[in-house]
Amino acid sequence: SPPPLHSPPRHSLITSPGLKPHQIRRASRVDPPATDARRGTEASSLPSLRLTRDLDWGMGVEEEEGAINGGEEGPGLAAAPHDRWVLLRPAQGSARPSARYKHAAEVVQDKLYVVGGSRNGRSLSDVQVFDFRTSKWSALLLSPSRDSNQLNLENNAGNQPFPALASHSMVKWRNMLLVVAGNSRASTSNKVSVWFIDLETNSWSAVDTYGKVPMARGGQSVTLVGSRLIMFGGEDNKRRLLSDLHVLDLETMIWEEVKTEKGGPAPRYDHSAAVYAEHYLLIFGGSSHSTCFNDLYLLDLQSLEWSQPDTLKVHI
Predict the structure, then answer these.
(1) How far is residue 230 from each of residues 118, 134, 196, 207, 299, measured CA to CA in Å?
(2) What would the pLDDT profile of 19-52 be if each residue is shown by its tens digit?
(3) Hey, what domains does the chain have and what are their CATH numbers?
(4) 225-166-222 Cα angle (round to 5)
(5) Cβ burial, residue 9 (10 Å; 0-12/13-18/19+)
(6) pTM score
(7) What is the DSSP string of 42-68?
(8) Pairing relation of β-strands 143-144 and 203-206?
(9) Bridge partners of residue 9, in order along the sequence
(10) Strand runs (DSSP E) across 120-181, as ranges?
């Protein structure tokens, strides 16, 4: 039987046991004011929501001429140049994974994990890993989990491989990768499925979830806030576009549908989402069946009110 339902307060999605306001506010860093020398404008005239992420991978970067300083340990790169795309070529003898789209990717420590995707209309089930220290690709071979005592894991995987998926979402949770929703020809369920990939045992399992489980979909966004996943939008199995908001409590594995104030994004899929200071959910872009969006919406996770931040056009 499902565990008892302990829903978060109606007017807040960021309050959870053991999570204090001062801990939330330290989660992100905002760039200090600076001057844009190219345009003579101060950063205060640029969009105020500017996040940075410190990357200290000790990895190599390709020079503009295309040469890489390599070795047995891969490119010995000290730092990546600012405001410039850099092509990371795999080390000699390391083959790239097959080309794909609608895959999911997540960085865990010094490795990039790429799961599934679509190639020529066929969904993939492989897990590919790029090691930033060595610049080498490798395939991660998974086996079904035999541990059903952790996080409501279903002990029913048998000897089946990880499901072939496309348009799914993935986040890191504890020592695992959490894979949510997506399109799979092997699935007959009309509800969102959840899987865990355990990076310590290289095993996977489906997970039992409870509460008001959302309808199956692909192209949704899934964002981790504390110990909760926030899922927005997507496209269901009948190609209907969605703009609903659901929250999965990872401590209880209970889903809850959240009603927000009016004025939110139009139904869409394949959009991007991010959390600012673990207080605001930002939704950008995406598609309908007839257009691509370039709008930006912000949801206050305490008041559950949508707004559209004022933005400035900046030529890069």
Answers:
(1) 24, 34, 17, 17, 11
(2) 332 222 223 333 333 434 433 333 333 333 333 3
(3) 21-54+90-307 (2.120.10.80)
(4) 10
(5) exposed
(6) 0.74
(7) EGGGS-S--B------------TTS--
(8) parallel
(9) none
(10) 122-131, 136-139, 143-144, 169-173, 176-180
